[in-house]
Write a structure and sequence with these properties.
By secondary structure, this protein is mainly alpha-helical. About 55% of the residues lie in helices and about 5% in strands.
């Protein structure tokens, strides 16, 4: 259950967008999701780095390659991976942070994981970053930094609350099924690792993510066979939505959950 404190933090971020002139609710959700995604990527790697130090191992497939550069296809310049991490750029000052995020970090998350054609890469191609002033970005980043992004249930509550604000703002056609209803339906369907799962109106991909979560909890052995893992990450889930913005949001949600290349999103 989302708390009043978290609601207040989300309201403050929402109001920051409105003051800056970004007032369309679905646009606010999209821009907030980009910022969420930037932080989640770094948070995830920080957790993996802590675990690697504890067990004296190395990280497999890190998002940010230590000591290496990323080639920005737009600016044609090399950018250190470390400089694009949330834990780094948020301490560089408002103007430097705006330049880094607009010019490099956003372009990086649009192309991340595109070694082969994927739903994520297709729908992120047309994405646009609309925060244009340093003060707005600083306030949004500070607000998002105060949220617990590592708690997946809490983030589900955050999305429910944001979509509720969208409905209250008069945005038609966007409805997020409450998470407990999603879980109930998935529990009734009892998906297995051998299934092919489709959501023809996926929105933020909540049903698809919950279905895979169920499989991981109830069919743990499937996670130890290469064939099952390949199916889970590439062909198990299939989805579609008529709204390009929701496609991008859903693609980011799926990508972050490690489903690198679902068939259709």
């Amino acid at each position: 259950m989302i708390t009043g404190e978290i609601k207040n933090k989300i309201d403050q971020i929402w109001d920051t967008f409105h003051v800056s002139g970004i007032t369309n609710p679905i646009t606010v959700l999209e821009q907030m999701t980009y910022i969420f995604f930037m932080k989640m990527l770094d948070d995830k790697q920080l957790q993996e780095e802590d675990m690697a130090r504890d067990f004296e191992t190395s990280i497999k497939n890190p998002t940010f390659l230590v000591g290496q550069n990323w080639f920005n296809p737009v600016t044609k310049q090399n950018v250190p991976y470390d400089s694009m991490r949330w834990s780094v750029f948020r301490h560089t000052g408002p103007e430097n942070m705006l330049q880094m995020v607009r010019q490099n970090v956003f372009e990086f998350i649009k192309t991340i994981g595109t070694g082969e054609e994927s739903a994520y890469s297709r729908y992120m191609q047309s994405a646009t970053f609309l925060i244009s002033d340093a003060r707005t970005l600083t306030k949004v980043v500070d607000g998002v930094d105060a949220l617990d992004m590592n708690n997946r249930d809490a983030m589900g509550d955050v999305y429910e609350y944001i979509l509720g604000k969208m409905a209250a703002s008069g945005t038609n056609g966007q409805f997020r099924t409450p998470r407990h209803i999603i879980r109930m339906i998935v529990d009734m369907m009892q998906p297995t690792p051998d299934d092919f799962i489709c959501d023809p109106a996926m929105g933020s991909a909540g049903f698809l993510v919950e279905a895979v979560k169920y499989i991981k909890e109830h069919h743990e052995r499937a996670l130890y066979t290469a064939e099952s893992v390949k199916h889970i990450k590439s062909s198990l889930i299939n989805g579609y939505d008529t709204d390009p913005t929701m496609l991008r949001i859903g693609a980011m949600n799926i990508f972050y959950k490690d489903f690198l290349n679902p068939n259709r999103v």
